[in-house]
C-alpha cells in the first residue's frame, strides 16, 4: 500500500489532536471538520479498504467505536451523529487508509449532509443478489 498521511500520523511524524490510542487503533480530530468534534478512527493496519482488514483489526475498531461515539457526543453536547466510511475513489474516499468518521450533527445545517437516491427493491433481483452474496461468505 502507498504511504498515506495516516501512516505518518501513526508514526508520530505528523502531529494530531489524539483522542484515543491502543496497539491497533488510533482516533484523532479531523483537520477539516464538518462540525465540532468530527473524529477519525483508523486501524494501525495499513490497508485502503474495509474488506482488506484482518478480523482482528476490524474487531478492534468495533470495540472502540461505540465508546468514542459516546465520548464525542457528550463532549460536544449533541445526541445525533453520522458514522461515515468510504471505500474507493468513486465512493468518495480521499485518503486510502481505512478510516471511520464520527460526525456530530448538532443542527440541520451542520455536520454531514447527504443525498440518498433510494430505489424500490425488486424481489427477483434481490433473491439473485442475496444468493450470490451468501455463496461468497
Summarize the structure.
This protein has helices at 5-10, 55-76, 123-135, and strands spanning 18-21, 25-29, 39-43, 81-84, 100-104.
Description:
This protein has 137 residues and is an alpha+beta fold. The protein has one domain: HIT family, subunit A (2-Layer Sandwich). The chain is 30% helix and 17% strand. The chain has helices spanning 5-10, 55-76, 123-135, and strands at 18-21, 25-29, 39-43, 81-84, 100-104. A hairpin with a 3-residue loop joins strand 1 and strand 2 (25-29). The relative contact order is 0.17.
Give the secondary structure arrangement, pairings included.
Elements: H1 5-10, E1 18-21, E2 25-29, E3 39-43, H2 55-76, E4 81-84, E5 100-104, H3 123-135
Antiparallel strand pairs: 1-2, 2-3, 3-5, 4-5
Mean pLDDT level? 96
Calculate the terminal CA-CA distance, rounded to whole Å. Answer: 25 Å
Low-confidence runs (pLDDT<50, min 5 residues)? none
CATH class: Alpha Beta
Number of domains: 1
Fourth CATH level, the homologous superfamily: HIT-like
Q: Please report which band the strand proportion falls in: under 5%, 5-15%, 15-25%, 25-35%, 35-45% or over 45%.
A: 15-25%
Radius of gyration: 17 Å
What features would you highlight for this structure?
137 residues, alpha+beta, HIT family, subunit A, five-stranded antiparallel beta sheet, 3 helices, 30% helix, globular
Amino acid at each position: 500500500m502507498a504511504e498515506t498521511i495516516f501512516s505518518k500520523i501513526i508514526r508520530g511524524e505528523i502531529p494530531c489532536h489524539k483522542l484515543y490510542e491502543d496497539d491497533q487503533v488510533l482516533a484523532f480530530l479531523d483537520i477539516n471538520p464538518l462540525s465540532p468534534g468530527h473524529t477519525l478512527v483508523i486501524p494501525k493496519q495499513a490497508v485502503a479498504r474495509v474488506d482488506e482488514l484482518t478480523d482482528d483489526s476490524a474487531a478492534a475498531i468495533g470495540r472502540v467505536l461505540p465508546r468514542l461515539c459516546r465520548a464525542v457526543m457528550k463532549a460536544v453536547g449533541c445526541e445525533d451523529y453520522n458514522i461515515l466510511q468510504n471505500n474507493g475513489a468513486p465512493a468518495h474516499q480521499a485518503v486510502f487508509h481505512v478510516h471511520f468518521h464520527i460526525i456530530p450533527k448538532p443542527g440541520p445545517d451542520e455536520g454531514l449532509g447527504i443525498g440518498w437516491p433510494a430505489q424500490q427493491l425488486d424481489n427477483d433481483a434481490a433473491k439473485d443478489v442475496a444468493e450470490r452474496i451468501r455463496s461468497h461468505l
